[in-house]
Amino acid sequence: MSNEDYFADVRNSGDLAGFGVFDGEGIKDHNSAPVKRSPNNDGMIYTIKCGNCGAPHNITVSWLEFIYGGHGHIPIDPETKRPWKHEQQFGGFHPNMGCKQCSNALLFIITPDECARHLKAAQAAGAITPQQIAAVASQLRQQAAAYRR
Ligand SMILES: [Zn+2]
């Protein structure tokens, strides 16, 4: 794996320490965010509440992001081009976005296993083909090889 560079800024930032929302029950809530396939079949929609002000959010995670996440790469938001945030202590990551109402960071953990599970379901439903997934996975492997040079 050559993901170390992606994680370095997260590890060094120290900004995770202050997130009381990760205490106890909070993390369970984030892990059980209701999720359903998007109406136009381009990904999954997570329904979450802002941990700070309670504002509801529907966050669409694209198949592309699940392919990255399911192959051990930090997903990149295709719209904002921002990499997701890795939360090492929870073994997962989440889109790097803030609440529209209070701009608090929106925290819900998606694990690589969960990415792989959604991709499997998407293939079974014909939303994405194994060839599409293989093509992206192959690109990711080439990029990873390039980073090692
Ligand atoms: Zn909020």
Overall number of structural domains: 1
The beta-strand count equals 5
The overall pLDDT average reads: 82
Task: Report the total helices.
Answer: 5
Work out the strand percent: 15-25%
Q: Could you describe the largest sheet, including whether it forms a barrel?
A: 3 strands, antiparallel
Low-confidence stretches: 6-30
List keywords for this structure.
5 helices; binds zinc ion; two-stranded antiparallel ribbon; globular; three-stranded antiparallel β-sheet
Task: Give a verbal description of the structure.
The chain has one domain (4-148). The chain is globular, with a radius of gyration of 16 Å. Strand 1 (35-37) and strand 2 form a beta hairpin. The protein starts with a helix and ends with a helix. It is built from 5 helices and 5 strands. The strands form 2 sheets. A 3-stranded antiparallel sheet has the order 1-2-3. A two-stranded antiparallel sheet has the order 4-5. The longest helix has 19 residues, at 130-148. Helix 3 crosses helix 4. It is an alpha+beta fold and 149 residues long. Zinc ion (ZN) binds at residues 50, 52-53, 55, 99, 101-102, 104.
Protein topology:
Blueprint: H1 4-13, H2 25-31, E1 35-37, E2 43-49, E3 56-62, H3 63-70, E4 85-87, E5 92-94, H4 112-124, H5 130-148
Antiparallel strand pairs: 1-2, 2-3, 4-5
Bound molecules: zinc ion.
Structure in a nutshell:
This protein is an alpha+beta fold and 149 residues long. 38% of the residues lie in helices and 15% in strands. It has a 3-stranded antiparallel β-sheet with strand order 1-2-3.
